[in-house]
C-alpha cells in the first residue's frame, strides 16, 4: 500500500458520517450549571471532578481525553478580550466624567469670582477660612447630590429603553422573551452616588481654596479681586478648558476610527459575490430516522431550491474546521539548498463541498477545484488561498506541494487530520473565515458529510438575491410545513457576523460618548469665554472708545478661544495615539493613526470651538463704551 493510500484510509476513518452526539468523545457541547454545597469552594469542586475525570479516562482507553473544568458562573466565558472591552468602556465613561467635573470646577471658579466681595467681607469680619471653605464645599456637595439623584432617575427610566435596543443589536433576539431583570442593583447605585459626591467635593475643593484666598484690601476697596487673582483664576479656567478639549479629542478619535473601519469593512471586496447569495438556515423538529432521514431531506431540499427560476447553483454552507497546525516537509529552496520543514500553528480552514467555491463566486486562480469523487472518497487534497501560496511558497508553484495537517484539541492533545495533504488549487483571497479579515494562512478541505437536523444551505441567484428570499422560503416550507426556517441574504449575514456586530456596537457607544464629550467641552468653552468677556467689559469699552472696531474685538475673543482649542488638540494627539491601540483589533486593517480621522476630529472640535466662541464674541462687539466706563 502506498503512502497516499494510507493517508486516504486514515482520513476516511475520522467519524463524521453518523455523528453520535452523546457517545463521541471528540464532540464537546455540554455545559452544566451547579450550586456549590455550603462551605465548599471552587478549588474543592475542581479536585473532586478531577478524580472523576481520571476515572473516565481510564475507562475510555486511548483517544481524545475527557476534559472537565469548573469556573464561577460569573467568569464563565469571560475572556481577556471581554475584560479589555469592559475596561475600555469604563475608561471612556470616566473621561466623560472628568470633562463634566471640569465644567463644574469652572462654574464654581466663576461663582467664586462673582462672590469675591461677599467672601472678602466674611473673612474681614472674622469668619475663619476653613469655615468658609466648608460652606462652599457644602454647596458643591449638594450640587453633586442633586446631579447624582437626577442621574439615578434617568438611569431607571433609560434602562428599560436601552436594554432591548442593545439586546437586539447584539444577537437579534426578542428581549421581551428573555428572563432578565432590569432592576438597578443597589451596589451599583451606591457606587454611582458615592462617585458623584466624591467628584463634586474633589472638584469643588480647588475653587473653594481659590475663592478664600483674596486680597482683602483690594476686594473691599475696589469691589473686585486683585489683578493677580484674576490672572491666576483665568489660567486655571483656561487649563480646565484645555483639559476638556484634550479629553474630548481622545474620545472622538476611537469613535472616528471605529466608524471608518466599519465603513471600510462593509465596503471591502469580500472575495465572493455576496449580493447573489442567499443563506437558507433550517432546523427540523425531531422526527426520528437518524442520519439517513436527515440526508434524504437535505438532498430533496437542495433539489427543490436548485429547480427554482433564477437559481444558478446550491450547496451546503462550509463548516469551520478549527485552527490547524500544518507542517511542511523538508524541501529544497529556490537556490538548490536544503530547507528544513516549517511548522505553523493556528491556521484556520474550512470543510467545503465540490460546488462551494463556484456557488459563492470565489474563482480558482491556479490549479483546479475539488471533484465530487474527491469529496465522496475524502481524498487528502486541499485548496489554499492566494495569501497562503505567497507566504509559504514565494516565487514557487504551490501546486502539488504537500503538508501535514493536525488540529489542536481543547485538552492539549493533537488530532491528526491528514498526514499528507496535496495542494491542487489556489483560490482568490476571501473573507469567508472572518468578516473584514483575510488570514495570512488559510485552506479548504473536502467536506465530510456532516448530516444532522440543523443545516445551512447557500443559494446562488442569477441576479440580486434579495428578490429570491420569499420564493426560497415558500419552497422550503412546501417540503416540510413545520420546518424552523430562516432565509436571509449573505449581505445581511455578513453585516451581522460577530466581529462586524461588535465593531458596530463599539462604534455606536464611542459615538455616543464622543458626542456627549463634545457637547460638554463646547459648553465649557462657551462658559469660560462668556465669563472672560464679562470680566473684560471695562477693557473692551476702553478699546472701543479709543477707536477699536467691533470686528477686531470679535476676532480677538474668537482667537483667544481657538487658542485653547488648538492647545487641547495638540495635547490630545499623542494621548489618542496611545488610547487607539485599545480598539486596534476592531479596525479591520485601518491604521490606528489614520490621518483622515485625526484631521476630521480636529476639524469637528474647531467648528464646535467657533460656535462656542461666537456668542461671547458677538456680545463683546455690542459693548457700549460709555456704559462700560460708567459701570466701572
Brief summary of the model shown:
The chain is α+β, with helices and mostly antiparallel strands. The protein is 56% helix and 13% strand. α3 (80-114) runs parallel beside α6 (186-211), α8 packs antiparallel against α15 (498-535) and α8 (227-267) runs antiparallel to α18.
List the helices and strands and how they pair.
Elements: H1 3-12, H2 42-60, H3 80-114, H4 116-124, H5 129-171, H6 186-211, H7 216-222, H8 227-267, E1 277-283, H9 290-306, E2 311-316, E3 319-327, E4 331-332, E5 338-339, E6 343-352, H10 356-360, E7 364-367, H11 372-377, E8 381-385, H12 386-392, E9 402-408, E10 414-427, E11 443-446, E12 454-461, H13 469-479, E13 484-489, H14 490-495, H15 498-535, H16 537-545, H17 550-579, H18 595-621, H19 625-631
Parallel strand pairs: 6-11, 8-10
Antiparallel strand pairs: 1-12, 1-13, 2-12, 3-6, 3-9, 4-5, 7-10, 8-11, 9-10
Helix pairs in contact: 3-6, 3-8, 3-15, 5-6, 8-15, 8-17, 8-18, 9-13, 15-18, 16-19, 17-18
**Order of neighbouring strands in the sheet with most strands:** 3-6-11-8-10-9
Structural class: alpha+beta
By DSSP (H or I, 4+ residues per run), the number of helices equals 19
Helix content: 55-70%
Instruction: Report the biggest beta sheet as strand number plus sense, adding barrel if it closes.
Output: 6 strands, mixed, barrel
Shape label: elongated
What is the number of strand segments? 13
- Beta content comes to 5-15%
Tell me, rounded to a whole number, the average pLDDT: 79
Q: Kindly report how far apart the N and C termini lie.
A: 108 Å
Task: Give unreliable regions as ranges.
Answer: 1-18, 223-229, 332-339
* Assembly category: single chain
Radius of gyration: 34 Å
